[in-house]
Design brief:
The complex is a heterotrimer of chains A (144), B (306) and C (489). With 144 residues, chain A is an alpha+beta fold. Chain A has helices at residues 22-34, 67-80; strands spanning 38-44, 55-56, 85-92, 99-107, 115-122, 126-133. In chain C, helix 14 links the parallel strand 14 (379-383) and strand 15. The chains are: A alpha+beta (144), B alpha/beta (306), C alpha/beta (489).
């Protein structure tokens, strides 16, 4: 159980709110599609804050008009990886942006042990810090 | 379909409280689509009648739903059969609009594909291909032309069956998200359905597109010429009538498409005719008239004069 | 001492360069038919000439005194291709509804400026002319910097897009808080505030502008304790966290030393105050680029010359200079908080920070189109007297690409600092979610916040404590143009 006020990893746009229902997720997806963003689904069991690359569940989905397609893939991803972190990300390819514009978590492991801080004391009072995942000592696939 | 917010955050959808046919039609603006269909396509009376019937069914179904008489949306998957050039794709687009305006599909766009868009060339290639097409079509209508090519039982390494399985599943379980229209020659579609009863049971509406009659083809040619600022000269129209009567008996007749091709060839002959006289000043009339000889130049006439 | 009463430029060289005093407009600084080139720097000054001074002559004088002229004719002019070096005032218009004030458009040839140097640009444009006696008041209202000149600047070291990628935070504004009280906390106590605020849900904490290295807290202690708090909070939440460590110091050598220490301790961001000056700002920007550091700019002291409409330099010009000089965060106003800023004018500043191409927008105070030639974008910062109850107004005004800083609004929360942070974060997320769902957040905001407060006690407490607070004073710096006016150019 993590010690921050939510008890969960607080990555993504909506981590401080109650978990989104499927209807709410669909509304967010449709908002992104209406703006011309491409959605992609990613999953991981290593949610370290500096882990940029989660595993891709399929390629980014371009040219979609309706949220149903994304929901279909998301449900399958949840069935396949029920104990992984899964997030939806929206990509905006307009010039000057060319980056992700929305990102939120849609699935979490049932228990999130979180991270510890490892400290390395260096000459004088200086310190080097590393965030270490509690579950990361186990191999991939067996963490949650 | 959106309207101003009336109280707090509750959006009241007028379609969901309609009690009369007029209520439904008023908000849905289906009449204009039907009249556009009437104008776009010549003839096709049985098809247009059928579409009106389907539209009526959907309107009444909406009223029944509002009264709580039925919970599920009706099956909307369709099959259009007929020879090429009889307007199947055009009607499919209009159908997508009608379905959208009556609230049966959310976005109303049309994605038109053939077998090659759905089926892969090696193991594992088909499923992602099919799913990608399906995702793009969701919220609208998926139009599969010559759908029977999906089924090739004689070739054991053919992956079309996989695509069919995926389609069947989506057609059944995600009826609210997608409408599928299959299209092709009637006899081949019949064979396809016999071998794939699952597909057959999911298609609710069968529309047959008869070949155009010669007088309908003439009207089509009038429309096509008009759209390109051409006209028939004296006697040319009758000549074209004769041409059509000959042409429909020839093999590989593709209705409207064949008419377009014939008119294009007539324009070529007109151009050659005008090109021959370097020094004449041509009026707008000269440049836009197809004369008898431009029509009669077709080799169809020559082979019949023997 | 005054010679001919003519008002047109003297083109006869002998007459022009004979010793004596001429009017500026006779010396060639007034050219009403001049067509500005794409490579010219264009400035718009708001001038208030002294009684009896002709506005065109005043505009020509500004052009002269900010380029090549002096108060009397000099023969050494003839050693130069002086016609091309002269700045040219090409248009003068009275300001609507402000008798005695005029807009003056002046063009400067590209050769007058050193590449990549804001110090030089400012020395040229505002270095001389503002003390000029014939002007009662003068303000540099807006500036158009040609692409040819923009390309000589490196711009923000990180930029808005890459910063988000480094933090892995997308789709919502970022949240921050300035540690309060402004002065007096020791290092250890300071670190506690940092830890609580970040753990509670903020993305950034911030040193205040006057926290450098004082007897009550040496900078090294602050950095050590702050980074401990930052790293603990990162492990507790699983998010990348940061705190703007203020490296402002007496000289560059000390600033570099402080910046190096911040980097060693693993900070993602550091902070400088505007008062270090343009040269120092560009040096620090270069350092940050070489060391993967986000640079936060606090606009300390700008109010002395940006606030009054009649005299000084408009903040929109400062914003343009800061973007070129290269800072990643820029305080640009809140519109609804305790500090000066009318909403439309503030939106104009935000557009200067965030757009790839600013279009002329008189209502928002943008007098020129400005092409940024793909220079990195700056993240604007809204800081000063704002609280969770205003979240819907802030997001409606400013969108997602902004950092909202709630200093008092976090630390002064009745339930404690963490509770304050939770309240702000929940308010933020629920407004963003509602906006994406299509709700009208400006009008339904208070209701949405109240609903969210039902499952979040800290938010409820925040709304109860501060819900009624607002700062309604007349702005001193609003646009001269309301929607119906037509642009005069």
């Amino acid at each position: 159980m993590m010690t921050n006020p939510t008890g969960k990893i607080t990555q993504g746009q909506f981590s401080f709110l109650p978990e989104l229902t499927d209807e709410e997720i669909e509304m967010q997806i449709q908002y992104g599609l209406d703006k011309g963003f491409a959605w992609s689904i990613e999953y991981t069991d290593d949610a370290h804050p500096r882990n940029t690359y989660w595993e891709m569940y399929g390629n980014p989905m371009f040219d979609l008009k309706d949220a149903a397609g994304v929901m279909m893939e998301m449900r399958e991803c949840r069935e396949t990886f029920p104990h992984h972190y899964i997030r939806l990300m929206a990509f905006d390819s307009t010039r000057g942006v060319e980056s992700i514009t929305m990102s939120f978590i849609v699935n979490r492991p049932p228990v999130e042990p979180g991270f510890t801080l490892s400290r390395q004391e260096i000459g004088g009072r200086s310190m080097r810090y590393t965030t270490v995942g509690v579950a990361a000592s186990k191999p991939e696939g067996e963490r949650y | 379909m959106n309207q101003t917010i009336e109280q707090e955050q509750v959006e009241v959808d007028p379609l969901s409280i309609a009690r009369t046919v007029a209520d439904v039609l008023k908000d849905a603006d289906v009449e204009s689509v039907l009249s556009e269909l009437e104008q776009d396509l010549v003839g096709l009376v049985p098809v247009k009648t059928r579409i009106r019937d389907i539209a009526a069914l959907l309107v009444i179904d909406r009223l029944r739903k509002n009264q709580g008489l039925t919970a599920n949306n009706p099956s909307l998957h369709m099959c259009f059969t007929g020879n090429p050039g009889t307007g199947k794709t055009t009607v499919a687009m209009r159908m997508a609009q009608i379905l959208h305006r009556l609230g049966y599909v959310r976005k109303g766009h049309l994605v038109a594909v053939t077998r090659d868009d759905l089926v892969g060339q090696y193991i594992g290639h088909t499923a992602p291909k099919t799913r990608e097409i399906l995702k793009k079509a969701m919220g609208g209508v998926l139009f599969i032309d010559e759908a029977y090519y999906l089924y090739r039982p004689e070739n054991e390494r053919d992956y079309g069956q996989e695509a069919i399985e995926i389609l069947l599943q989506v057609m059944e379980n995600q009826r609210d998200d997608l409408v599928v229209i299959l299209a092709g020659y009637k006899d081949r579609m019949d064979t396809f359905f016999k071998s794939n009863p699952g597909m057959s049971s999911r298609v609710a509406h069968h529309l047959d597109f008869p070949d155009y009659k010669v007088d309908e083809l003439l009207s089509i040619s009038d429309k096509m010429l008009d759209a390109q600022a051409y006209r028939f000269g004296p006697g040319a129209r009758d000549a074209f009538d004769q041409y059509l009567n000959l042409r429909v008996q020839q093999p590989n007749f593709a209705n409207a498409r064949s008419v377009r091709n014939a008119l294009d060839r007539a324009r070529l002959r007109q151009a050659s005719r005008l090109f021959a006289d370097r020094n004449k000043t041509y009026s707008a009339n000269d440049l836009s008239t197809l004369e008898v000889e431009d029509i009669k130049g077709s080799r169809l006439f020559r082979s019949h004069e023997h | 001492m005054n010679k001919p009463i003519e008002n047109t430029a003297i083109t006869d060289s002998k007459k022009r360069y004979t010793a004596g005093v001429l009017k500026y407009r006779q010396m060639g600084y007034w050219e009403p038919d001049y067509e500005p080139k794409d490579t010219d720097v264009l400035c718009l000054f708001r001038i208030t000439p002294q009684e009896g001074v002709d506005p065109v002559e005043a505009a020509a004088a500004v052009a002269g005194e900010s380029s090549t002229a002096t108060w009397t004719v000099v023969w050494t002019d003839r050693l130069t291709a002086c016609d091309s070096y002269r700045a040219k005032a090409y248009n003068v218009q009275p300001v609507p509804n402000n008798p005695g004030q005029y807009f003056a458009w002046i063009a400067y040839d590209l050769i007058l400026f050193e590449e990549g140097s804001i110090a030089n640009m400012t020395a040229s444009l505002i270095g001389n002319v503002f003390s000029f006696k014939p002007l009662k008041a003068c303000r540099l209202e807006d500036i158009r910097i040609p692409v040819a000149y923009v390309k000589t600047f490196k711009g923000p070291p990180t930029g808005l897009i890459v910063e988000r990628e480094r933090l892995d935070k997308f789709g919502r504004p970022l949240l921050g808080a300035t540690t309060k009280p402004k002065l007096g906390l020791s290092g250890r106590n300071y670190g506690r505030v940092i830890y609580e605020g970040l753990k509670g849900g903020l993305d950034f904490m911030k040193d205040d502008e006057n926290i450098n290295s004082q007897p009550f807290m040496h900078w090294r202690d602050r950095f050590l304790y702050v980074m401990d708090g930052v790293n603990k909070a990162q492990a507790a939440t699983g998010e990348v966290k940061g705190s703007y460590l203020n490296v402002t110091a007496a000289n560059m050598e000390e600033m570099y030393e402080r910046a190096e220490f911040a980097k060693e301790l693993g900070s993602v961001v550091l902070m400088v105050d505007l008062v270090i000056g343009w040269t120092a700002i560009q040096s620090m920007s270069n350092w940050c680029r070489k060391n993967d550091m986000v640079m936060h700019m606090h606009r300390a002291g700008h109010g002395t010359y940006t606030r009054q409409k009649t005299h000084g330099v408009s903040f929109r010009v400062m914003a343009k200079w800061l973007r070129l000089a290269g800072c990643d965060h820029m305080h640009a106003g809140t519109a609804v908080g305790k500090l000066e800023g009318d909403p439309k004018t503030v939106q104009g500043f935000y557009n200067v920070c965030r757009e790839s191409y600013n279009k002329q927008d008189l209502e928002r105070g943008l007098f020129y189109d400005q092409d940024w030639a793909d220079l990195n974008k700056v993240m604007p910062v809204a800081s000063g007297g704002i609280h969770a109850g205003q979240m819907h107004q802030l997001i409606d005004l400013f969108g997602d690409d902004v950092i909202l800083q709630f200093g008092g609004g976090t630390i002064g929360h009745p339930g404690g600092i963490q509770a304050g942070a939770v309240a702000n974060r929940v308010a933020l997320e629920c407004i963003v979610k509602a906006r994406n769902e299509g709700k009208d957040i400006l009008n339904e905001g208070p209701e949405i916040l109240r609903k969210a407060a039902q499952f979040c006690t800290p938010l409820k407490q925040a709304l109860d404590t501060w819900g009624e607070i607002s700062f309604n004073y007349t702005s001193t710096d609003t646009s001269d143009f309301v929607t119906t006016a037509s642009p005069s150019n």
